Amino acid sequence: MEGYRILEIKQSVFENNDREADKLRQELKKRKTFLLNLMSSPGSGKTTTLKRTIAALKDDYRVGVMEADIDSDVDAATIEQTGAKVIQLHTGGMCHLDAGMTRQGIEGLGDEDLDVAILENIGNLVCPAEFDTGAVKNAMILSVPEGDDKPLKYPLMFSICDCLLINKIDVLPYFDFDLEECKKRALARNPKIKIIPISARTGEGIDEWAAWLREQIDAWNA
Ligand SMILES: Nc1nc2c(ncn2[C@@H]2O[C@H](COP(=O)(O)OP(=O)(O)OP(=O)(O)O)[C@@H](O)[C@H]2O)c(=O)[nH]1
Ligand SMILES: [Mg+2]
Fold first, then answer.
1. pTM confidence score
2. Which residues have CB under 6 Å of ligand 1?
3. What separation, in Å, do the N-terminal and C-terminal C-alpha atoms of the chain show?
4. 28: which residues sit within 8 A by CB, 6+ positions away?
5. Residue with the nearest Cα to atom 2 of ligand 1?
6. Which residue of 36, 95, 173, 174 sits 20 to 30 Å from the alpha carbon of 115, by its own alpha carbon?
7. 64 lies in some domain
8. CATH number of 25's domain
9. Model confidence over 34-88: pLDDT tens digits?
10. Is 163 a member of any domain?
11. Candidates 39, 41, 47: which one to mutate for ligand 1, based on the most atoms within 8 Å of Cβ?
12. What is the pLDDT of residues 120-152, one digit of tens each?
C-alpha cells in the first residue's frame, strides 16, 4: 500500500459548488426571481440577443442583467442603454462563473425587486458548462459562422442547456452551415433541448424565444 493519499480535489470543487447552486436556487424561488444563465463562444451574439430579449420582456417583468467578463465594461454599457438594471462582473481571468460568484452578482444587482435576472456568462463553450451557477434555466447560443459541428466538439454544453439559440441566421447564405444537421447533432446530445433559430440583427425568431422564456419565468415565479 502507498504511504500517501490521493485527494479528488476537482470532485470536491464540483460538489461544493453544486450545494451552493442549490442553495441559491432555493433562495431565488422564495424571492420569485427567475435566473437565466446565457452561454456561448465569444462573439456569438449574447449581448445583442439580450438587447432584443429585454425589449421583449421589459413591459411585463423587472429585468436585471449581470455581464460577466474577464475585463472591460463594454457589455454593461450596451445593456444600460436598454434601461434594464445592469452590473458588470470581472472574473479576473477566470473563464466561468460559479454559484458563489453568481450570488455576488445577484447581491450587487439588488435582487429583491427583480422578476428576472440574466447572467451573460464568459464567452467560452467549455468551462461555463461545468459549473452550476444556481440558474433556473441554462440557454446557449451557437452562431452560424462557428459551424454546425459544435455539438460534436463541445458535448457537455449542449447536454446541460435547456434551450439552444442558433443565431445569425441572416448570414446562412454565406456559410456552409447545415441547419437541419446541426439540430440533429444537438438533439443527439440532448433530446430535450429546445432549439430556436434566430437573428439578433433582424429580430427573426425573437418572438418564439421570448415566448419560451416567458413560459419558464411564469412557471418559476407562480
Ligand atoms: N449578422 C449578424 N451579426 C450579429 C448577430 N448577432 C450579433 N451579431 C454581431 O456579432 C458581433 C458580436 O455580438 P455580441 O452580441 O457582442 O456577442 P457576445 O456573444 O456578447 O460577445 P462576447 O461578450 O464578447 O462573448 C457584433 O458585431 C454583433 O453586431 C446576428 O444575428 N447577425
Ligand atoms: Mg457580450
1. 0.95
2. 40, 42-48, 75, 123, 167-168, 170-171, 199-201
3. 57
4. 34, 35, 106, 111, 117, 134, 136
5. 168
6. 95
7. yes
8. 3.40.50.300
9. 999 999 999 999 999 999 999 999 999 999 999 999 999 999 999 999 999 999 9
10. yes
11. 47
12. 999 999 999 999 999 999 999 999 999 999 999
